[in-house]
Design brief:
22% strand, single chain, Aminopeptidase, alpha+beta, 200 residues, globular
Length: 200
């Protein structure tokens, strides 16, 4: 089954700015020597990463496109996200926000939103116009963040309207489809019944 796919509206992308980081923390890019810390935060967040995953992401990211929030007190990474140079398979040219992770000890403080905003600002500087992400139906905390920060669902196959309807019912957030991929009219009518619009 295909992952849920979202797009960041181009007008919102053009308005991205550098995020503000709380006192005691620093937002910075990956630098040589961060490999072990990168692997540690991804494993802590529940991803089954190995050193090979780190190497692959380093090769696929934009230059200065892997971001960390670092705790100044212990130099541990609180959160991370990366800007992939390429769009997901089947999408037009663009980039993909990927590998968003927040360490278990630092959750609930908005660090996920900060690293995501840092990635989107990097795409703006690189003059990208289309940015996507892929995620899973059960990752409700992440889906809540994405919907709150402007991401819109893409209906890439016939299963998507019903799946997004279930997502909306759980976090109680409106799912406004970005009407870039056609949806059969009967299915579109059932999408996000509690939403506040028909999309862009």
């Amino acid at each position: 089954m295909a992952q849920l796919t979202m797009i960041f509206p181009p007008d919102l992308l053009r308005g991205q700015t550098q995020p503000i980081t709380p006192d005691g923390f620093v937002l910075r890019c990956f630098r040589p020597g961060d490999e072990a810390g990168y692997l540690a935060i991804m494993q802590n967040a529940g991803f089954r990463w190995t050193h090979d995953h780190v190497k692959t992401v380093l090769q696929s990211a934009l230059p200065d496109g892997i971001f960390f929030i670092e705790d100044n007190a212990n130099h541990k990474f609180a959160a991370t996200a990366m800007a992939n140079r390429e769009a997901p398979p089947g999408m037009d040219s663009g980039g993909e926000l990927g590998w968003v992770a927040v360490s278990q000890a630092y959750r609930g403080h908005g660090f996920g939103k900060i690293v995501c905003q840092a990635v989107m600002n990097r795409y703006r500087k690189a003059q990208y116009t289309h940015v996507y992400l892929r995620t899973h139906d059960h990752l409700l905390p992440a889906l809540r963040i994405y919907l709150q920060t402007g991401w819109r669902p893409l209906m890439i196959d016939e299963t998507m309207p019903e799946r997004w309807k279930h997502v909306e019912e759980k976090p109680q957030l409106p799912c406004i489809p970005f009407k870039r991929v056609p949806v059969p009219e009967a299915k579109a009518a059932t999408l996000c019944a509690g939403g506040n619009g028909s999309g862009r």
